[in-house]
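Attaching the record inline, Q. Sequence:
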Amino acid sequence: LDTNAGTVTAPVKTLSHACKNIGPSLVLCVPGTYAPFDFRNTDAQGAKLKILRAMGACTIANAADDATAATWTADGTFPNVWWMPLTPANKPVRVVLDSSRLDEEGLPVPLARYVDVTTTNASGLGYFHDVAANRLYVRYQTSSVNTAGIKSRLRIVTGDATTKVMALGSKMLFEGDWTMEGVFLQPLQNAGVRAYLYGDFAGKRPTVAYTVSHAMDSLGADSYLRKAWAHRPQGDGWHYTDSGGLASNGVEVDCTATYAGNIAGEPTSPNTSNGSTTHLACNVLRINGRYARNWGPDIVDTGTGASWNVGTIAGPGAPSGNAFGLYTTGPAMLLDCCESQGHDTADVATTAGGTIQKFATSYSTTSTAGGGGSITEYVP
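Structure, as predicted:
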């Protein structure tokens, strides 16, 4: 309970209470699932760096119904479509994961999301969340498949645009085996006070996945990420922009971003979101990262900042209209010992006055367009 003392023998229940009210900077987190929370510089403990150390596999997620334990009923109009009841108080269904189908990353493929039962029935494989009736409708491949019989394959993740872990003008450090499902990270300046987000992750699982927003939305903040993995966010993977007159700065070491913008395989066009991207006056250092299958450029820098990329691997890309690998539309981009392959448009590209200087970088195609963009070799 949160009324406990917050000791090893009398732990508190929520991360929110532990960060805001318990004195020590180090918060030891036992394995389990925790609710999203925010930590503000105006909280009682807001002046401290809060270190959240996972003592095992820790997950941050909203409450979600259990597809395995639910009772599934064949729809009266479309008998190939089955439905289960949903808890009205829960957040909207973000994705329904199918453990019997794995993507190139070895992770469950989400079912396609549809807008009504009729379209779901015509799809052969997908789901519809009926918010008014509090029901989840699923059709699974063929008329011979009874959803009630294969429900053990399905897992529900919930979330919306408010589902986040926010560091508001505060300092927060994650250590260990953390994953956030349907929950994004948002370090955000508060009245000119810069936020700081640090993450030294285990790298065993996606760090942030299936979000409505970017995996991390850095707003007037400084971020250091190691072994962080963004997977299937609707927006960008790692996203940096200015806020309140403060530019965001980032360091990504051994980080990964995959399938950004791929909205659960929906039939509508996916967002052209990026694996990692800077905007306005932001700067970022990327070291030994991997960015692949993102529906926009795997890495794109815009605005007036700069990036230094060392040992970065981009690609293969996704089959989208923005299939670029390493791409700048303005900032200076340094590429040292990088690799970019498998992009439909260009592996290395610049436009609108952007400049790329590269050393020992492997690629197959390049592109320059408009505004005097340039791609040149240099010796560091």
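The chain has a mean pLDDT of 94. The chain is about 5% helix and 45% strand.

More tomorrow.
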